[in-house]
Queue: 2 jobs
Job 1
Amino acid sequence: MQQPQDNSLNIIHSEHACGDCTACCSRLPISAGIVSPEQKLAGTDCPHQCSSGCSIYQDRPSICQSFECSWITQKNWEAGWRPDHVGLLCLEENLSETCKGAAIYEIRRGALSTPDGIEIFQQIKKRTDMVVLIYFNGTRHTIVKEPTEEKTKSIIRPLTVKGRKSA
Ligand code: SF4
Ligand code: SF4
């Protein structure tokens, strides 16, 4: 979701701007009809991606405008933890009033096993009730804190769609 240097979002997130990261545009699935007639599958480039980022940036869909990965929202995260640098794309959202979930996509093989990857996982685990790890090869592993029926149901529909609540 590359942004022009003079875009207002860059000012709002002056320390954590997307810059030339496009991890969410290629890594996340997007429902049919939003950026393409068919569902854009996880791990495939959005048809609107171009060498400068997003070819329809000014008119990009609202889910793209509102989407924020954890690196954007966590102002205390290091600059080097930007998804394209650290190899992890992290999302956090409230799955219900009492259950906060997170997904960590490994966008570079082995990134979850690096010291930075382990630290990111530990930080996210502390502030959420369940974390879905999506390894580079597509394998999923879910960690649930104090499992309840509600949380177990949430596992069936983990966070996957860009900018869209899964619950
Ligand atoms: S993954 Fe995060 S930093 Fe990268 S383009 Fe998407 S919102 Fe911006
Ligand atoms: S339309 Fe959305 S997903 Fe596609 S390149 Fe633009 S910001 Fe990324």
Note: Residues 69-159 form one domain.
Job 2
Amino acid sequence: MLYNQYKYVNTIKEKIKCRTAIKPTKAKHVRHPKTMIIINDFIVEYNTKIGFYLIVSCETISCPCCSGILKPRGKVKRIVIEKPNEKLDEKRTYVLQRYICNKCKKCHRELPNFIVPYKRHCTDTIQTIITSTEKHPDVNYEEETVKRIRTWWTDVRPYIIGALLSIKEKYDIDFTYLDPSQNLAKIVRALVNANLWPCTRSVLLTDP
Ligand SMILES: [Zn+2]
């Protein structure tokens, strides 16, 4: 096969061209969805030199995929939009710990409970928007933000209720009595730490 391909190649330049053309392509690196853990017990340390907030965990959580032991593996930055007062949106950069599981070798990043995975706004902001029945919630948010978060919540809510039922059956822990919109931080922690948090909107729209 290779001989036939080289048969009509005369110059060195063409040979190189031909070799490049038939060189098997390397398999593309497949990026797996990021897995996370959520912690309730932590300290926030502000580093004045770099202007970042460092999250220091005070609790130990096992791997959400296999219950293996997690070992620290580097740190990552995460920007969160917070609302210190009614009129101000503040972007803060947090430095989060990454872990690797000693059993399944998956990496997990550790989020404090005021961060919802894959969302830019903090848990309080999201909860205020999804629980408000007003067209515009009490505090000032951009209309586009309110619309986007409410659409996300409409999509994610049925999945969350199903996932809470699955936790109840699998682990015999009952969160189904909680209203997800009123207890967002608790629900997010339960689902993330059970590896049940949906990673993309397309997952929610796909039939199980
Ligand atoms: Zn694991």
Note: The beta strands are 35-39, 42-47, 52-57, 70-85, 88-101, 107-112.
